[in-house]
Specification:
By secondary structure, this protein is α/β, with parallel strands linked by helices. The chain has a single domain, classed as Rossmann fold. It is 23% helix and 37% strand. A 5-stranded parallel β-sheet has the order 5-4-8-9-10, sandwiched between helices. A 4-stranded antiparallel β-sheet has the order 1-2-3-11, covered by helices on one side. β2 and β3 form a beta hairpin. The protein is globular, with a radius of gyration of 17 Å. The model has no long low-confidence stretch (mean pLDDT 91).
Length: 190
């Protein structure tokens, strides 16, 4: 990480991490959580989320590619529930895949989510927990919800490590914490 990069310190699932701040729009920065490769944090978050989700009766976890895949795997192990990954790029081996378009704050561009043909029957008629690492605008969750409707699955809960932005929008999400947005102050002309 650049020595000039500002960070935001968080304590989550008993661990401390310094999250780098990145600009996602003019004057707006977010603290970026990237659990890829951070096994200690991923396992701790999965264990803490499993405890929070104990009263939720779900059959299967669903997440979107890519940063939340390790969390889905670890939470699957903790809860003894299978998981499905919605892919962002279609591959021929995925067969007759379902698709929806979404917009992520971290990409800033429309992207597709695909449900592999092999997972259609696994989801049909099941109670689903949607999972993401950080829930910012809700666009990815919205895309996952639309996908579950197409697949004939019932979304019964949504979870993530963090929500971000306006906390009032995320009261129904099972999380371990909340991240603020960071707004740059205009220079004082005086």
């Amino acid at each position: 990480m650049s020595p000039d990069r500002q960070t935001y310190s968080v304590e989550i699932a008993g661990l401390r991490r310094d999250l780098p701040l990145f600009e996602v729009a003019p004057g707006v920065r977010i603290a970026v959580l990237n659990i890829l490769g951070d096994t200690e944090l991923t396992q701790a978050c999965a264990k803490a989320l499993a405890a929070k989700l104990a009263p939720v009766q779900f059959d299967i976890l669903v997440t979107a590619e890519a940063k939340s895949i390790p969390l889905a795997h670890a939470l699957s192990v903790e809860t003894q529930k299978p998981y499905v990954v919605l892919r962002k790029v279609y591959k021929p081996y995925m067969g007759v895949a379902l698709s929806v378009e979404t917009l992520s704050i971290t990409t800033g561009q429309p992207q597709m989510l695909y449900l592999d043909e092999k997972d259609h029957d696994l989801l049909r008629g099941k109670r689903v927990l949607l999972l993401d690492d950080v829930i910012s605008t809700g666009s990815t969750l919205n895309g996952m919800r639309r996908m579950m409707d197409s697949a004939g699955a019932e979304v019964i809960a949504e979870a993530g490590i963090f929500t971000e932005g306006d906390e009032a929008n995320w009261s129904q999400i099972h999380t371990l914490g909340h991240l603020p947005l960071f707004f740059d102050q205009p220079a004082n002309p005086g």
